[in-house]
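Continuing the batch. This is chain 6 of the set; chains 1 through 5 are on the previous pages. Same settings as before, nothing changed between runs. Recording input and output for traceability.
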Amino acid sequence: MTTEGTVLPLSALDRSSLPIAGGKAANLGEMLRAGVPVPPGFVLTTSAFRAAAKAANIGPQLEELAKAEPSDRACLAALAAEIRAALSSVTVPEAIAEACVRAYDAELGGAAVAVRSSATAEDLPDASFAGQQDTYLGVLGKDALLDAVRRCWASLFTERAVVYRADRSIDPRDVSLAVVVQRLVHARAAGVLFTANPVTGRRREAVIDAAPGLGEAVVSGATNPDHLEVRVDTGEIVTRRLGDKRVVIEALPGGGTRHEERTDGSAEACISDAEARDLAAMGARVEAHFGAPQDIEWAIDPEGKILLVQSRPITTLFPIPVGPLSSASPLRVYFSFNVAQGVFRPLSPMALQFWRALAGVAARGIGLWDGEPLDGPPIAAVGASRLFLDITALFRDPIGRRLVAFALSRMEARSGVAIRALIDDERLGLVETPRWRIARAAVRALARTRAPLTLARALANPDAVPGRISEKVDAAIAIGTVPEGSPPVAYVDAVERMIREGIGPFIFTGVPSIAGALVSMLLFRRALADLMTEEEVHTLLRSLPNNPTTEMDLELWSLSRRVGADPASHRVLRDEAPAALAKRYADRSLPAVLQRELASFLARWGARGVAEIDIGVPRWGDDPTHILGSLANYLSLGDDASPPDVAFERGAREAEQKAEELVARAREKGALRGAVARFAVPRVRRLLGAREAPKFGIVRIIAQARSLLLAAGRLLVQEGKLAAEDDVFFLDLRELRAVTGGTDLRALVAERRRLNTLELGRKHVPRIVLSDGTEPEMIAAAASGEGGLSGTPASAGRVTGKARVVLDPVGAKIEPGEILVAPSTDPGWTPLFLTAGGLVMEMGGSMSHGAVVAREYGIPAVVGVAGATARITTGQQITVDGGAGRVGVEA
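Output for chain 6:
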């Protein structure tokens, strides 16, 4: 066989060399081109691996691995072990072995080397695969070199690497591996450098871990290193913690390494402040070259020269949101709309368009902005396909800061914690806005929207609020009517008309109406401040009327009782999978009772769904699998299950009784307090329940817009302009209009689909993030030494039961009395509440959706519990104290 291109010097590589040299080697070549000191070496390219793989005959196992389900860990592990065994024992093809040894002698003088794996799916901008393949240090001699190469090849199929790739939908047949051979640095000190703080997210703050000897002691966690944090722009060392550095790894003269135990070294740093600053500056050069923060391994040789032996992107950092105001001042504050809505997943491009446009219509309507509604107001920003709001100006205003703190303490408590962590940041000092200017803007907004009149009507007749909001929704939907046989662009026009003409009246009816709940609550607390406990408040807020979400849940329960009484419907719900039943529903082949009752339910509630704020996500009307699964779960509970409708009615009676009791207490303290309480208490119940009406209204509008866009998509597929009808959701309205005119954007759609798939795997979305990358909540948590499971009291009561951790409600089942532990919830989750004994949520505040619904069903709830889904496991016995805001976990 030919060996041309099998061995290449590192200096011949750049980022385009990924297919032949893998990520690690390609990055080393880039660093050399940037003038960064890197130990000399060469790469054994992927062609060598392919030849070895062919000789080892691993093709059949790769085919099986490609077919395996990512969740079948046992199958993945078994196949990975077979492939490793084959590659570990394969004979390196003679021509490849000769080329490798020749380069070792000629370029590195046969000295001790480091042999590192360099996979083609490694050290990439969107997936670092850090630590997935193996490295061998102190390799000396030709036989040892070839053995290390073989072991590197085999490490492409370690169990952790195979699982990591499977979870990211990377085809195992498409990955390959090169091997980097570099002269070993006999380091005086070595370690790891992050060019951005991986804990707080702050950019331009280098974090260094350092230890004597080879860096493997730091990378493997074998020693407790020195830890330094350096501000790149000033050179200031803001944190210095000296580790004991008891374990030191050194290279042996005859090859290999040794672990040496030493005495406590915490009295002296292993690198100087000057070396720390030099490392930070060098890291900044590498970051600038690659255009992204880097995770770098470094070494300092006995002469004091710094060399970099590896660089990969830090893929765990949350991208800094970008919007029109991003460059307006040195530091911006971004608040996550996604987190506020309980939706961690990325939003489709069309959803981002919709919410920007909605905000644009609102801002124009109140006279705060006169731009194009489709662009959205300048406060809208996007990061990692999530929507953020730039609240910098609001936070820096004295009144605005108090309003933000108050609102977040009620809606999303942990965001309130994050905001409080920013108060002392001198870069975000208060900026006074003339009060006359604020007053003028407020008067103009109130006059343009007639909000005082709408508020007065809501307070006068709170039970009419849902109907008024529904009327505006119906009017907005009617605007989007399209005659049959219209071209694709007509459907795009209809959606744009709904946004421009229909959403404004809906917003300016819904928002002031629901503001009545806040007015009522303020009056209620003022009248009864010293006459009630928080537990009594929770009792008052149970089983609220006028709430479409609880109406939906109770109707679903009632539906389960009706279809359960029909033998044919009961049988199919028991015996067939929900997905199969959903297909039968579409084919109209379900038993008659189930077909009719489900159609009736979906006619009213089919606009809802999980992550329903995203227009790109199917509604229950599109796919009722989740609803059918919930029905099957309810029917499996048996006749002895506690009926939620009975519990709801009991809660309503207790709440009304408590309302009368509280009004009587206030009356005893004086006629005025009694009158205020008599006015406020019933309105608190009726208007707080109605707070879900605008959310349901906007979801109905989204569902109508979705159906119009899908109709356009079907026509565009027929015309050959799109590959699939739901491609429309990976474009914005202007782009979709361009497609109707003949512009080919299929490549753009494919790339956005790929990015969306990657973003679906993101496990962390910050509530608040600064434009320098800092996540204030992380700083607040570190400062408080946050430990136990505590959060915000959301629904009073105490319950002990088995935990059920649910990350996705579709297909989930909650046995009666189990405690639901979830990252967040939106209305699509609430069918699970009907059987839950308690609720623990990572997100939310006392007025968030999950908290309100938990109170209505009378189940104890604690929200805003950091890391709950990771720190609690299904089956654990836990105690939820909803009044105290604590969660106890049995050991």
